[in-house]
Design a protein that fits this description.
With 193 residues, this protein is mainly beta. It is built from 3 helices and 9 strands.
Length: 193
């Protein structure tokens, strides 16, 4: 959960095969921990989720609901099965390429949801396992961490179990946060001591 909050304000970058650079500030994430019934790792490692059980700092990509790729940052050590779903970014560079990939022109429609984000960044299963720390194709840059006062939490979106856990982190009031509807109302995150 620490990584889910810490990723807010960081910059997700993608270098396309044609050399185009896509980038945006992360504004929404969700944590999936070991023992979490909503996690892909809950029942153990499979061929599909093996990356999630690998070393931290790698990209775990999976296909969801038969029509969306989803991007996750692996967050624990090998064998632990923990990741953070990247739910939304505020696009900052490469908006024309994102618009072509999405078939949409309005910036708010490009990356305001996890499926939209993967599509805008042209990410699919072929990027599964990419090293996000020293990556050449997809990586995360430092950016400006979000002030604790602006970090809000809520229940996760689209999960059927473990939905009561406030493990969705987002920048309060940011217009690029996804329109997904979590369970209980949102609440500001208490400041870190």
């Amino acid at each position: 959960m620490e990584v889910a909050a810490d990723l807010l304000g960081r910059i997700l970058v993608r270098r396309l095969p044609d050399g185009a650079r896509l980038a945006g500030r992360i504004v929404e994430t969700e944590a999936y921990e070991p023992g979490d019934p909503a996690s892909h790792g809950f029942r153990g490692m499979t061929a599909r989720n093996a990356t999630m059980f690998g070393p931290a700092g790698h990209l775990y990509v999976y296909f969801s609901y038969g029509n969306h790729w989803m991007m996750n940052v692996v967050t624990r050590g090998s064998g632990e099965g923990s990741a953070v779903l990247l739910r939304a970014i505020e696009p900052e560079a490469g908006l024309n390429a994102m618009a072509r990939a999405r078939g949409r022109d309005r910036p708010l429609d490009l990356c305001s949801g996890p499926g939209k984000l993967a599509q805008a960044f042209s990410v699919d299963r072929s990027q599964d396992g990419v090293d996000l720390v020293i990556g050449h194709e997809v990586w995360i840059e430092r950016g400006t961490p979000t002030s604790d006062a602006l970090v809000a939490t809520s229940a996760r979106v689209g999960v059927r179990v473990g939905f009561e856990r406030p493990w969705r982190f987002f920048v309060a009031g940011d217009r690029f946060v996804s329109p997904g509807r979590p369970g209980p109302p949102t609440s500001p995150r208490p400041p870190t001591p």
